[in-house]
Specification:
about 450 residues, two-stranded antiparallel ribbon, mainly alpha, globular, 18 helices
């Protein structure tokens, strides 16, 4: 037998920790996993905020955190740290997704980007207009941005529950729509929900952004370099009065997308390195005095292969993959836990039923989003600006539009910036949660029926 060939029987047994974590890895690999964890965090927040221990829930998020460096110190509440600090990482990942889509995805060309861009525009304008119509002249008028946002994790999670019955074109359309929607949300936050601007801090942020862009142009690829600049940029944007999470999107625009090694060079170098690894493994198999631990040639080949893999993959893709799990399974659930806890008793529900804020949010998300997305999409196709994705019917577009009404995390986030009054913020939260539940279920039911009808009508079915 070739000593370098290892049979199944010779493979070492799988470690206990891997066997224990295998179900969790399988769950995390599903497309809807992030949305399910987010849903669980929301349920915990609501249950906790409406339990006998509700006071501990609210006190927890007011716990002060102090960060210091030399003589400089800053103190924030835990809630502030999550919304202004951790959410900057979320917006950084959003920025990476936006840049990738603009360079190599559905937003690369005007033709491919036209449908999701027009649909997203309708999905922002119509909900904002309906909210403003309900709240015109009232104290909640300035909070029109709340029903404009789509929660990409939940919307795509609900779509994933339908499996492969959903046309690929519809998945791509909804993902691209949500990306454009995120761009709109960032612009709304930066322009309309920013207080007084400190121009010295803005200048400092501009210098740091230019430094990051210069590092990209100079060929700097180490994540820690951009992390260091990003932390300083976050501090400058925070001090400027612009919401600090905008720093995440700005930094993402400077992350390199080019590889240092082309595919052909990678294949040649990787084959050579694997040959070296094979030769080193043969020595280990034939010489009992040489072990895997002491085989320097073995270690060198593995390290060289790791370097080659790093050089052939764009830093943007590596960072996006590295941070996706952290955002989906840590940052977003923590955000939901900290922000979704609203007291829902008979008095709160009675107040929400007559509150223009709640009604405006529900009307914007449940009616405005589907109406805006669908009508603007159909108008763009009728005018010849774009065409429908392959296999996608008008009914499916409507279903995607309804899923666009799942505002949830983004809507809650904008609500936290927009509402200065805690009572109105609670009314908005009730509206966001109720609307997200209604649109999630309604969108799933409509698309389930639409995809079933598509299968029946398909040739050969």
């Amino acid at each position: 037998m070739d000593p370098t060939t290892i049979s199944v029987a010779q493979k070492p047994p799988e470690p206990l920790v891997d066997r224990l974590l295998a179900p969790f890895r399988t769950f995390a690999g599903t497309a809807s996993a992030g949305g399910l964890v987010l849903l669980a965090a929301t349920a915990i927040a609501l249950a906790w905020a409406n339990s006998p221990w509700a006071e501990s829930y609210h006190h927890l998020w007011e716990t002060p955190l102090t960060i210091g460096l030399g003589a400089w110190t800053a103190t924030w509440s835990l809630h502030h740290f999550i919304n202004d600090g951790l959410m900057a990482v979320f917006f950084f990942v959003v920025g990476l997704e936006i840049k990738r889509e603009m360079l190599a995805g559905e937003l690369k060309t005007l033709r491919s980007a036209a449908l999701p861009m027009v649909a997203a525009l309708g999905g922002m304008v119509v909900p904002a207009a309906l909210y403003a119509l309900v709240n015109v002249g009232g104290p909640g008028m300035r909070d029109w941005g709340v029903p404009m946002a789509t929660d990409i994790a939940f919307a795509l999670g609900v779509l994933a529950l339908l499996g492969d019955r959903v046309p690929t074109g519809l998945k791509v359309f909804l993902a691209a729509l949500a990306i454009v929607d995120d761009i709109g949300a960032v612009l709304v936050i930066a322009v309309f929900y920013t207080g007084g601007v400190a121009w010295n801090a803005v200048l400092a942020a501009g210098v740091l952004l230019a430094l990051a862009a210069g590092a990209n142009a100079a060929g700097v690829r180490r994540p820690w370099a951009y992390a260091a600049i990003g932390i300083a940029l976050w501090g400058a944007v925070l001090a400027s009065g612009v919401h600090a999470t905008v720093a995440g999107v700005l930094l993402a625009m400077t992350i390199p997308v080019k590889t240092r090694l082309h595919e052909a060079a990678f294949l040649a170098e990787a084959r050579r390195t694997l040959d070296d690894f094979d030769e080193a493994a043969t020595v280990t198999a034939n010489d009992p005095d040489v072990t895997v631990l002491s085989n320097a040639a073995h270690h060198h080949a593995v390290e060289e292969l790791e370097t080659l893999c790093e050089q052939v993959q764009p830093p943007l893709i590596r960072l996006e993959h590295a941070l996706h799990g952290i955002v989906a399974f840590a940052i977003m659930p923590v955000f939901a836990l900290a922000n979704a806890g609203v007291t829902v008793d008979a008095g709160a529900l009675a107040g929400a039923a007559t509150s223009p804020v709640t009604l405006g949010v529900v009307l914007g998300l449940v009616v405005g989003k589907p109406l805006g997305i669908t009508l603007f999409s159909l108008a763009a196709m009728r005018l010849g600006i774009t065409t429908a994705p392959a296999g996608v019917t008008t009914r499916m577009l409507l279903g995607a539009g309804i899923l666009g009404g799942i505002g949830f995390t983004m809507a809650l986030f904008i609500g936290g910036l927009a509402f200065e009054d805690a009572a109105r913020l609670d009314m908005a939260k009730i509206g966001v949660l109720a609307a997200s539940l209604v649109t999630g279920v309604a969108g799933w039911l409509l698309l389930r029926g639409a995809t079933a009808a598509r299968r029946v009508d398909a040739p050969g079915s």
